[in-house]
Amino acid sequence: MRLVTWNVNSLKVRGPRVLDLLARHAPDVVCLQETKTEAGAFPAEELARSGYTAAHHSGGGRAGVAILAREGLAISDVQRGLPGEARADQARWIEATVGGLRVASVYVVNGQAVGSEPWAEKLQFLHAMGERLAALRAQELVVMGDFNIAPHDADVYDPAAFAGSTHVTPEEREALEEICAAGGLVDAYRTLYPVGGEDPNRTHHTWWDYRQGHFHRGLGLRIDLALVGERLVNRLLRAGIERDYRKGTKPSDHAPLVVELSQG
Predict the structure, then answer these.
(1) Distance between CA atoms of 84 and 228, rounded to whole angstroms?
(2) Most Cβ neighbours (<10 Å): which of 55, 112, 136, 174?
């Protein structure tokens, strides 16, 4: 079973790239973030013509999340929004049952600056995630999306450059650990490729700033994660980052993360 998560940074702009991903990689499940569409503008019909059913949580603005399932996999029991989040209108969480898995697509609050109001909202959101995932722990659970957290210094091109900034603070990393503990979840990528054991030829960043040639200089972060439940760990086959989607015409600043599970 092939699952993908991708922060597309505007589905309207990146629509052709998404359709290309579906055609080339034939994923079973896709989690999208930052769709930036109003509910009535979500391209459900266009995706259906490509063989995918969609459930989405769209609020316009800068957020919006969605789950796509290939033809033959029903999407059921959809829940939009996260109990306890500070701003439900930002459309940052959607979950559904697909192919026997409970799948969540999440776009965690950026946080902007340590100590700011968005920072407090980010920590609140992470706490709410932990509470929700504790309630889902008994299910075969997958949580995928843009967490806006680099779990380890190894996930940051230069930890010193981010000292005192969001995405790398002890508070955020501890909150992520608490989420994993609450939901019985592991980081799929790091389960397969532990810190210190990376293949130097493998891309392990998922986001590169548009500015100053960061992508071409290899100055990225790994902030897009796939967390899988403890009942799925022994089914993990592969996790890879499709770096080529950060290239070409009108790329997102994120690359898709692909995770493959053996059949249950």
Answers:
(1) 22
(2) 55
* 188 DSSP assignment: H
pLDDT of residue 32: 98
Alpha-carbon distance of 48 to 31, in angstroms, equals 15
Rounded to 5 degrees, φ, ψ at 263 are -70, 140
**What residues contact residue 170 under an 8 Å CB cut-off, 6+ apart?**
none
Confidence grade of residue 243 (pLDDT, cut at 50, 70, 90): very high
Assign 202 a pLDDT band (cuts: 50, 70, 90): low
pTM for this prediction = 0.96
Q: What is the pLDDT of residue 213?
A: 86
Domains of the chain: total: 1
Domain that holds residue 183: 2-261
- Segments in the chain forming alpha helices (H): 11-25, 44-49, 117-136, 170-183, 188-192, 214-217
Other beta carbons within 10 angstroms of residue 242's beta carbon come to 17
